[in-house]
């Protein structure tokens, strides 16, 4: 009996220490812009090792349908954003080299073999969209590096393929797979076209404008947000807005049409931005609906979608909601059990590195924060601190309740 009691005591002590550690962790890492960039590079160092020596892309592909492409493309995009935010020649050159590595990975025969070559455009809009979006960022980083002529030719060709397929499609959402269309994939492709217009001529301006008009006519009837899944023939909603996709859509839509993205962002905050135990979170389903998790959302616990919550760091940042972005990062950094040393940083002991890739890419949007916002107050998490205190108190009151009752009875007798 004593062994059982000691075991329970040890478990309670461990739980108490963990809760206290979580509360302390929420109040740390008040990073400025430069320190934030260095911290992201530590994450990218970890992903670099895993991609190049531990077959990270292949490992993630065995778990997720697009694991290989997603892991590599997010790694490349993160380096592009770091390079764009840094003026040092060393960092920019390193960013360019790593982005080129990532692009070569997702352009390989191995990557293409995962997708359907009979679709229009070839391999589907998920593959072509992310491939071309990385190219657009790579060329923004440096448009005149040695060998850049080849990448410019490919980029121009890809843009034409996207535009032509869209002009001959009855829906504003091209297929990612046979008879399947997800608007988030289309937003990636349109962001790649929009980026063309930013550093070339305005060739795709009318196509982008017409696409935005068509999308506005195909929003989810319930939330008026861009839906999660649609009928590829007519663009009608099959599955309404979801936290995992709308967080990603808004990050990209901000590069396509800022006014439309602001309108969608207001609806997003109304339907999906929430708090859980006093901490910021993204609900996977809009207000009034509930559901379970899937391969897109990851686990859904207390209604919170893990993928949408991670990506929202970048969403809040591109919308100028820097304080909310920082609170969301701190929450993920804490509950993701981040660990780091002088060279690398990883989450959840490196058990799910695709999450590390999404976190790194989401955080790079903060590098565009010209105001250099730094969290100066730790009072924002007061509700969670209060809940934590109550939980710890209850744990120990329940454990020592017999002793407490005996002491109270003894006190009452003496009176």
3D structure, described in words:
- Among the domains are: 1-30 and 382-415, no CATH class; 242-335, no CATH class.
- The longest helix is centred in the N-terminal third of the chain and has 25 residues, at 2-26.
- With 415 residues, it is mainly alpha-helical.
- The protein is globular and about 90 Å long.
- It has helices at residues 2-26, 33-53, 56-61, 67-84, 89-106, 109-112, 124-141, 148-167, 183-199, 205-216, 243-253, 258-271, 306-318, 322-335, 353-364, 382-399, 401-414; strands spanning 229-230, 237-239, 273-276, 279-282, 300-301, 304-305, 339-340, 345-346.
- The protein starts with a helix and ends with a helix.
- It contains 17 helices and eight strands.
Brief summary:
Helices cover 61% and strands 5% of the residues.
How many strand units? 8
In which range does the helix fraction lie?
A: 55-70%
Spell the H/E element sequence: HHHHHHHHHHEEHHEEEEHHEEHHH
Mean pLDDT comes to 93
Beta-strand level of the residues, as a percent range? 5-15%
Helical run tally: 17
The assigned structural class equals mainly alpha
Task: Name the shape in a single word.
Answer: globular
- Rg, Å, rounded: 24 Å
The strands making up the biggest β-sheet line up spatially as 1-2
Characterize the quaternary organization of these chains: single chain
- Biggest β-sheet strands, sense, barrel: 2 strands, antiparallel
